Amino acid sequence: MLNFSLKRLKESHQGSWIALDFFMLGLLILNLALILFDSLYATDLIRQSLNQLTPALLEWYKPIHANFILIDLVFVAIFLTEFILRWFVAVKNKDYLRWYFYPFIHWYDLVGCIPVGGARFLRFLRVFSIIYRLQKYKIIDIRQSAPYRFIAFYYDVFVEELSDRIVAKVLSDAQDDLRQGSPLLEEITTEVLAARKPIVCNWVASLAVHSGHSIEDMQAGSTLREHVRQSVGRAVRNNSQVSALKLVPVVGSGIEKMLENAVTDIVIQSVINLLTDVTPEKIDRLISHSIASSSEEDKLDQEMLNVVDECIELLKGHVSHQRWKTRL
């Protein structure tokens, strides 16, 4: 069902254009019928059959057949007039960015006006332009019609099968490249990560400096300060040499407490200084000198390639799944 909506037709303010569409559709059907009949009339078999059935019709149609090109040019003139009228209105309404876009977008209407050979039958494409305009303004709804669903389904099947095979071929080529020793990880490191290393270094440095200032703040860094104080306290108390201070009469415990507080303050201030002194250049040097090639790193690279290969294999299996079969 096309679900023709008279209400939508009124709201679209396209009534005159739709009427023109149907008028042109009637002319188109008449023109195509004449073209088809004239093409059949040109064959000896049809002429002989007409001569046996209705000799009068054969004689009546002879002058039409002889001057058919002129009759067809009348239809072409009407079609071109309608095309130019729509072009003028499109330019006036600024429907397209450039005035000369219209003939390129509506090429099917223009090509159908060629009064030569098989190009005449391309006028049938005008039917689809009319249906498109009716669908555009929601005057009809062809999406629920059986022909549309049939065509849409098999179009989706074709596109899915074609795209699946292309994607699977691309993934298979990538797998073969990896299995033959592709320097993928090295290229990622040198071409992708290396280009972003300054940004990463700046981020790490700013994060370290921000952390240092947060620890330095008495309120924001209270949690970390307390944790360091407890850790240092346990370390000091468990140290045999510091514990010996307790043996000193009267002042032993006080000295131990003072030493614990001093060490705690020194550790916290050292951490703050370490973090606030971090610069992107120091992070860059640290990264450059800390990463060295080793057999373990080679094993890790190989393992990463295996992970990528297995992921591609799983992706191929997912892509190759024919989802359209579940819709049947």
Automatic annotation (TrEMBL):
Gene3D superfamilies named in the record: Voltage-gated potassium channels. Chain C
Membrane topology: Multi-pass membrane protein
Transmembrane segments: 20-43, 64-85, 105-125
Localisation: Membrane
Keywords of the record: Membrane, Transmembrane, Transmembrane helix
Name assigned to this protein: Preprotein translocase subunit SecA
